[in-house]
Give the backbone structure.
Amino acid sequence: MSTNEHIITRIAPSPTGFFHMGTLRTALFCYLYARKHDGKYLLRIEDTDKIRSKKEFEDDILESLKWLGIEHDAFFRQSEHLSEHKIYLQKLIDEDKAYISREESKENAGEMREVIRFRNKSETVTFHDLILGDVTVDTSDLGDFVIAKDFDTPLYNFAVVVDDCNANITHVIRGQDHVPNTPRQILLYKALDKPVPAFAHIPLILAPDKQKLSKRKHGESVAVSTYRKNGYLPEALINFMALIGWNPGTEQEIFSLKGLVEAFTLERVQKSPGVFNLDKLNWINKEHMKLLPIEEQEKRVFEFLPESVTNLPHFNTEKMRTLVPNIIERIEKFGDVRTMGDGGELTFFFETPTLVRDSLVFKGSTADEGKTHLLEAQAILTNLGESDWTIETIKSAIMAYADTLPKRGPALHPLRYALSGLERSPDPFTIANAIGKTETLHRIQNALTILA
Ligand code: GLU
């Protein structure tokens, strides 16, 4: 048996909001650490706040983690453990380590209520954080802190300690925003005569504006579901999040989940906050997109293809399939396919465009010059056999001509525009290949008619 086999980590999200990037990264680090050491990783939904906890948020947490492929070994809801919480509350009271206090409510002045307070002996607590190093806190400022509103309503610090004890959690890996809770929790472990787990507080994530990433300030951009909807790959999101606050110590930037398990160490988690950089996410996503087998790329492109494209009179699935490599080059995430399609950037592949005379002529060139080049392209492409009709052969035939000119633009622009009818579009070879020889010559003829 390896010495690490007993390692148990947990992610403990509260279902009081949608699953967000911060929780994703904590879950990921807990998962990586457990898998790396052949340990276990648990998911505990902390649903004791009856008013703010919602089923839809729990569903979002579970679905998001499933989509990401972060699989847990066991699942609990904190609310299932209320009887345990009660037993331990009673134990602390019986041992005079906690007491029921009758006091005026802070919320409603004049109203008396009972709470359960921990009898704090005001010790100095020191713990060795696996990321932050030794942390020493004088707990006298905490006073006799409240651990439960009543026997049925334990507060976070108490419930979390009981649950972590019962699940034999060995490593509590969570965000640095929880550091102030840790001394309270350590006092409770000691009062309950339970072993104190190891702590690793991971650095916060800052938004590009350098503010702490928060649901309130940054809205849907922190929701994992937003990235799913926008066609990011789960493996890319994981790869990106792993690199916020951690680095492998090598130049490698593209990792699979399995690769991350192998490379991950808590020693390489930094103390200072990491920044959420969307450009980097887009770059990583593109790298992962390129790694997908062509069938997977096709499947996802079709998944995001909008009706504005599929409902075109001459839409054709086979032709669409041949466009996938070109589309992959032009997008950063699969959601871009929707934007492209709705923006008319795919229409010309299926429908003959309507051309505008002025747009056919290259800037600084003339209509006559445009006509000469188009006639030349027409001749070249007419001579190209149907069986030679590939992007490469079309390109080398046209470029052989364009390269004889002082500049390629005056020849390539009218051809590209004739085929796409757009100021910006893929190169003319890609389009000619996709629409076929007959349609290519038809569109060149249209352009020549306009220029005549
Ligand atoms: N429910 C807490 C949260 O969502 C868990 C904190 C912890 O990991 O102890 O922040």
In short: The mean pLDDT is 95. Residues 12-14, 46, 160, 174, 178 surround glutamic acid (CB under 6 Å).
